[in-house]
Amino acid sequence: xxxRSIGSRLTDCIALVGLLIxxxxxxxxxxxxxxxxxxxxxxxxxxxxYDSTGGPNWTQQSxxxxxxxxxxxLDSISTWYGLRTAxxxxxxxxxxxxxxxxxxxxxLGQFTKLRVLDLQENNLSGSIGPWIQSLTSLVKLxxxxxxxxxxxxxxxxxxxxxxxxxxRSNQLEGSIPESLGRLTPLKGIWxxxNNLSGSIxxxxxxxxxxxxxxxxxxxxxxxxxTLSSTPLRPSMDINxxxxxxxxxxxxxxxxxxxxxxxxxxxxxxxxxxxxxLQSLYQSTNGAEWINSRxxxxxxxxxAVDVGEWFGxxxxxxxxxxxxxxxxxxxGHLPPQLGSLHQLEALHLDGNPLKDTLPAELTQLNNLxxxxxxxxxxxxxxxxxxxxxxxxxxxxxxxVSCNTLSESPSALSSSDPSIALPLWIVAALLLLGIIGAGxxxxxxxxxxxxxxxxxxxxxxxxxxxxxLGVIEQRIDYLIQSxxxxxxxxxxxLQQSEVTRDFSSSIKSLRDALDDRDQxxxxxxxxxxNTIYRKFVARFIRVNQAVEYFLQESNDxxxxxxxIQSLLEDxxxxxxxxxxxxxxxxxxxxxxxxxxxxxxxxxxxxxxxxQIAEVLEPGYYIEGGREKEVVIxxxxxxxxxxxxxSLHEFSxxx
Length: 652
Fold this sequence. Notes:
Helices cover about 30% and strands about 15% of the residues.
């Protein structure tokens, strides 16, 4: 009985185990049949991404098996390097700094559930195509530090969930799409170091969550960047360095991260003040001013940049001082000047301005100095104007229009207080030297033709022809000198100019005292020496004019015309500049000065080689050989200074 009982229980146990096995088998089959597969469209897109970006050469490519015929399970895809999956789709592609090359395939648009696309720090090229519009689930788009080019597609505005857009350090061009202003979730935009241009739509700067806006080093970007704070955006990090953008100074300073720096460097000049300056320039014939450096209105400028304009002082983002005295302002003062509310000093003395002071000037409540001496401006007989003038601590030249018997001379030709700009004085002194040279050569050539003894030359006919060419060239130079003098006189129109020729007259006297020696040279056949000396004066004046032009930084300067005349004269006389070849042997180089700058070297092969050209030389083209007028100044290598300069000063 006991055995039968035990056997019965064993049979029951076996039956129970069998039932359990049979119940498990169907459940396993069901699990296998419900395994999630990668969507075919995304599987195809992964293979194309791999092939089009040089997949076999990626830095990391673990588990990437694109040879499979059919789409693998999604769990398998999630093990591939750089991929994340969720809810039956690929949701993240992070292949940053992984050696990707080639272009972005349009099939990327098939990842409709993608939340992160990070391909930064690769070598991708080409453009971002319209396929971007399909990535409506994207939260982070990071394509920085590639070689992407072309324009930003307007379809980027379809990325309604985008929070971070980083495209910096590419070669993108064109304008920033206005559609970005529709992406309200945006928190950060990095577009610096590209070739973007145009203005920034106000919708972008007013995005409620935007805390980072980096647009720097896009020189083509310009216009006004209007900012405002929101409860959702208590601060903002802004970068517009290396652009022509300026930040609207009316923005709330309290809500801008580091705004004190932003305000001082990038704040726009207030629109009202810019309009006032533009009206002043137009109403007073700004194109005819003696100095109008910087006064341009092509773009809305930053306040600090306006501070570099001639006659303007900027403080705390506003115009505080305007000093344009003796600058040949003509016409009348515009009423818009009343918009310079922070103006503290206004100097307009010595300009041919006329008419009545505009009543709008009474809005300048901060004015402490107002000077209009030696102008034809007068104050209207209005109580408001009288009260306003009475409140200004320092005034000069105020005349009532009712008591003005006659218009005062704006620029008296005998006024000794008129000061000439330094560059004009220097230029006139140099022109005086040219005049002295011209007179000297005329006298010498006149004596040559009037019967002075002829030099002993082997061929008199050749000498006569040569002298004829020289005389023609000298005549041209003299005519050019006269034209330059006339141009300078017209640009000045001030009688005190004659006082600035004192040194020129002294130069002329010294030259005439030296005439005996010059005539002796002429007798000895050295007429070319005189000619070269005269040409050298023109060259030195031309170099001085170039220097003053660079120093004045004034494109409208009369020196531009003077330089043109000088260059035409030198060209007519076949004067050419030349630069010795760096690395050539100084001892055999053409037209180099006898006293070069010495640079020590430890390389013996470099001994006596030209290391640097300090100043180009000039020669006269024509005849049987080139005649050096001014030798080139160079620096040369000397091997441990083992040779003295005298060992190679005797050159061919």
